[in-house]
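Blinded run. Sample ID left blank on purpose so nobody reads anything into the name before looking at the predicted structure. Input follows.
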Amino acid sequence: MTVMAETGWMIGYVVGIVVVLVVVALVVPILLLAHRIGKQAAAIDDSLQQSVTNTAGLAGLRTTIESAETIVAGLNRGRTRLGG
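Blinded prediction complete.
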C-alpha cells in the first residue's frame, strides 16, 4: 500500500509541476508583450502631446479667416468705387 501511495504522490507532484510550467510558459510572453505595449504607449502619448503643442495656433484660424474676409470685402468695395 505504501508503494501505491508514494507513486500516487509522485504522479500528483509531476502533474502539478507540469501544470505550473505550462502556465508560466503562457503567462511570460503575455507579460513581455504588455511591457512592450506600455513602452510604445508612452512614446505615442509624447507624440500626441507634441501634436497638441504644434497645432495650438489653429485655434486662432477662424479669427484669421474672418479678418481676411473683411479685408477682401473692403478691397472689393474699393475696386468697385474706383470703377474697376
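Unblinding after everyone has recorded impressions. The chain has two helices and no strands.
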